[in-house]
């Protein structure tokens, strides 16, 4: 349920951010497009206004100086008036008056219609706006070319382009805040789930302790009475196997109760420097009595961890027993240790059949076991105490076959 809520919250958050981001991009795009359009319209309006004044001056037969006054606006880079034959009658640069334009340029001008405009680059490398218009006057029509400086319009366009940087900054900030909020929310949900899990485990632990004590007290009476009966029954008596079965069942229940009490109790850790080689040999001696398989210990004498010796020994014994049970009477169990960063990684490997992929997610869950006589508390206890000592524990399959239990603990100084 909590996981589904987190998924829905994430989806809603990112949908909202995506919607806002789309709105910001569209707004910036529309503003930039409108600014470019307005800038070009401003250039065209200026060109039309100046060309109308020039046309009026030409129709009135104004002098060269009067026409030059029409083109005195500083926005004009240059302007000239020419005949349809290409003869320049007037030019803002007096030295160019009377020159002949190339025939192909005049033909192109005339074929473009009454008005034509385009962006050009001046010989100085500066951008400009060229506006060509045919002015109707007597005795013949004239050709007018205006070339306007575009720096005012370009300044408007540049300002509009800067909005992309502003929009990009807003988008970056928005997504950063969104990701930070998502991480914070995820961490909060995990902490809440962990706290609830710890509370549930504490409650289960208290209940388990009470039940285990009650069961053990009653079980002691059953086991004692059964042992007393077994002592009074001769070996050939048909009741002997039944009583022996009761004693074995009682011992198995007693072992389960002890494991439950061990798992449910609040642990206290007596951390010290522990030799991995010495502890590995001790764990092998406890776990592999009368085993006919092979063992290998690849641990240097100087490798040590900072741990609670008793609890680490129990975790190693559990790991070696699991490896033995997966192998049967034959196979190889290899224990190794090596430095890893600021810690030590202890590995218990076997060359058995490995672990079923469907069992992987539940390996360290309490009471989950694949063994007929298992309690399902060995790996759960190992995980509890290893993490309690500041370490990590994982169980993986090996590609070449078998499984490996990896225990990582701080290095003993």
User: For the residues shown, what is the average pLDDT?
Assistant: 82
Helix percent reads 40-55%
| Structural domain tally | 3
Let me know the largest β-sheet: 5 strands, antiparallel
Counting H and I runs of at least 4 residues, what is the number of helices? 8
- Name given to the CATH architecture of the largest domain: 2-Layer Sandwich
Shape: rod-shaped
- CATH top level of the largest domain is Alpha Beta
Q: Which fold name fills CATH's third level, the topology of the largest domain?
A: Beta-Lactamase
Number of E-state strands = 12
Helix and strand string, N-terminal first?
HHEEHEEEHHEHEEHEEHEE
Radius of gyration: 46 Å
Spatial sequence of strands, sheet with the most strands: 2-1-5-4-3
Judged by helices, strands and strand pairing, the structural class is: alpha+beta
- Cα-to-Cα separation, first versus last residue: 45 Å
CATH superfamily of the largest domain: PAS domain
- Strand-residue fraction? 15-25%
Ranges where pLDDT stays below 50 over 5 or more residues in a row are: none
Features:
413 residues, alpha+beta, Beta-Lactamase, Helix Hairpins, Heat Shock Protein 90, 3 domains, five-stranded antiparallel beta sheet, 12 strands, rod-shaped
């Amino acid at each position: 349920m909590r996981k589904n809520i987190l998924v829905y919250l994430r989806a809603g958050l990112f949908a909202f951010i995506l919607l806002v981001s789309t709105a910001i991009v569209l707004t910036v795009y529309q503003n930039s497009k409108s600014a470019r359009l307005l800038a070009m319209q401003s250039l065209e309006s200026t060109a039309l206004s100046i060309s109308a004044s020039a046309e009026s001056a030409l129709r009135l037969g104004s002098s060269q100086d009067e026409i030059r006054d029409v083109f005195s606006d500083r926005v004009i880079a240059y302007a000239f008036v020419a005949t349809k034959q290409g003869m320049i009658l007037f030019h803002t640069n007096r030295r160019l008056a009377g020159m002949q334009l190339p025939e192909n340029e005049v033909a192109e001008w005339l074929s473009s219609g009454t008005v034509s405009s385009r962006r050009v680059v001046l010989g100085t490398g500066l951008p400009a706006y060229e506006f060509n218009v045919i002015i109707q006057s007597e005795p013949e029509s004239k050709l007018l070319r205006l070339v306007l400086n575009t720096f005012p319009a370009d300044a408007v366009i540049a300002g509009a382009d800067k909005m992309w940087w502003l929009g990009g900054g807003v988008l970056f900030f928005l997504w950063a805040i969104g990701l930070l909020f998502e991480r914070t929310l995820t961490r909060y949900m995990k902490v809440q789930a962990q706290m609830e899990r710890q509370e549930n485990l504490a409650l289960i632990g208290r209940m388990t302790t009470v039940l285990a004590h009650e069961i053990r007290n009653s079980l002691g009476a059953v086991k004692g009475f059964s042992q007393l009966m077994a002592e009074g029954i001769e070996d050939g008596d048909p009741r002997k196997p039944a009583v022996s079965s009761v004693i074995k069942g009682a011992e198995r229940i007693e072992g389960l109760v002890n494991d439950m009490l061990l798992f449910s109790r609040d642990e206290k850790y007596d951390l010290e420097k522990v030799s991995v080689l010495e502890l590995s040999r001790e764990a092998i001696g406890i776990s592999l009595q009368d085993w006919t398989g092979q063992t290998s210990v690849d641990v240097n004498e100087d490798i040590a961890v900072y741990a609670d010796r008793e609890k680490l020994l129990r975790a190693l014994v559990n790991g070696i027993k699991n490896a033995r049970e997966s192998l049967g009477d034959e196979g190889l169990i290899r224990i190794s240790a090596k430095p890893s960063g600021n810690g030590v990684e202890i590995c218990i490997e076997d060359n058995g059949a490995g672990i079923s992929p469907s069992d992987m997610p539940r390996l360290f869950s309490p009471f989950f076991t694949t063994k007929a006589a298992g309690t399902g508390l060995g790996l759960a206890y190992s995980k509890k105490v290893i993490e309690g000592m500041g370490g990590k524990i994982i169980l993986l399959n090996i590609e070449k076959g078998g499984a490996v239990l990896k225990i990582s603990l701080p290095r003993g100084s």
